[in-house]
Amino acid sequence: MCDKGVCLCDGNLGGETKHFVMQSHAGLFNLCIVVLVAVNSRLIIENLMKYGLLIRSGFWFNATSLRDWPLLMCCLSLPAFPLGAFAVEKLAFRNLITDAAATSLHIFLTTAEIVYPVLVILMCDSAVVSGFVLMFIACIVWLKLVSFAHTNHDTRKLITSGKKVDDELSAAGVDNLQPPTLGSLIYFMMAPTLCYQPSYPRTTHIRKGWLIRQIILYLIFTGLQGFIIEQYINPIVVNSQHPLKGGLLNAVETVLKLSLPNVYLWLCMFYCFFHLWLNILAEILRFGDREFYKDWWNAKTIDEYWRKWNMPVHKWIVRHVYFPCMRNGISKEVAVFISFFVSAVLHELCVAVPCRILKFWAFLGIMLQIPLIILTSYLKNKFRDTMVGNMIFWFFFCIYGQPMCVLLYYHDVMNRIEKTK
């Protein structure tokens, strides 16, 4: 008998009638929400009583920000590299240079594009945040340049020989494949994608009201990120000890204290960039493919998380690293290792160069995902329909991984500054 969601099932076990009641746990879930709100409210009040309001008028811009002008000029000059890549492709499609020469020129351009900002940052006395922004943009341009060169190389092969190189290009048909135009390159460099195509799905119009609402939300959550950093994360890391040099209990206490504001900052960052900023950019450009992420928060394995949380990078790695490795006879396991290695190098560049230290914390953090993938995949296969893998993912995501990296890099940067003095 079932009544209003409560099911009473009669069963005869050994001559006795048993009644099984399917109970709802919604009340316990509500209790967890209330406890979460109460705990976080107490932490907010405690922080304000202890430190006061730490946000100052010069948080976003002050006199010291003027010393970062070389980084701004470097960022503004990065479009010269895509223009150089476009010139190389024009010469290659007109058969004025060989395919080998075009590949060599693309390798030179992509290498110079990533080395140039590294040298500017290392030579200038700039802020860590400014260096991080420049390296982040430089890595995006590098990924786009690689995709532009790789895709056009495959296009030339398909046009001249009709040989199938890439599934997406082959599906387009040889007759529809054309040399790149300056307009298609400019659109690609501005579009919220890392994989080059001659054309993209487009929407019919720009939703102005929706766009304004997203911009307002973006500004609000950007300010919230700054508030979390200044009000909660900075005081914790400034008053902490190096996690590898202090006592174990002290390190554990600091990591746990930092984990809560860190996960809030990460979620705000994800919402700001992947949901708001990329959709704002897509709406302005009428870009039709809005799959920037999937439900990574439900990931039962680390592998599933990496396949869902950053779809532009995932598609780039699959298309320009993983599939080319497989087509050249490399095993699946080695192809996965190479994919994570490329990702680890880019993460290390984005963090180590602005911090001016080479400790490989970011590199190791990415490469250690491989044994975690094996572990969580094993648990998923052994304990089917469980969330053990999801709990392990959240543990490393919230508690162990990112807070530990923040502490390690902060103290290494402070040690470097003290030594230079």
Automatic annotation (TrEMBL):
It holds the Pfam family MBOAT. It is found in: Endoplasmic reticulum membrane. This is O-acyltransferase. One of its GO terms (cellular component) is endoplasmic reticulum membrane. The active site is at 347. PANTHER family: DIACYLGLYCEROL O-ACYLTRANSFERASE 1-1, STEROL O-ACYLTRANSFERASE. It comes from the Eukaryota. GO terms for molecular function: diacylglycerol O-acyltransferase activity. Keywords: Acyltransferase, Endoplasmic reticulum, Membrane, Transferase, Transmembrane, Transmembrane helix. GO terms for biological process: triglyceride biosynthetic process. Pathway: Glycerolipid metabolism; triacylglycerol biosynthesis; Lipid metabolism. The chain crosses the membrane at residues 28-49, 69-88, 100-122, 128-149, 215-233, 263-285, 360-379, 391-411. InterPro entries: Diacylglycerol_acylTrfase1, MBOAT_fam, Oat_ACAT_DAG_ARE. The lineage of its organism: Eukaryota, Viridiplantae, Streptophyta, Embryophyta, Tracheophyta. Belongs to the membrane-bound acyltransferase family. Sterol o-acyltransferase subfamily. It is a multi-pass membrane protein.
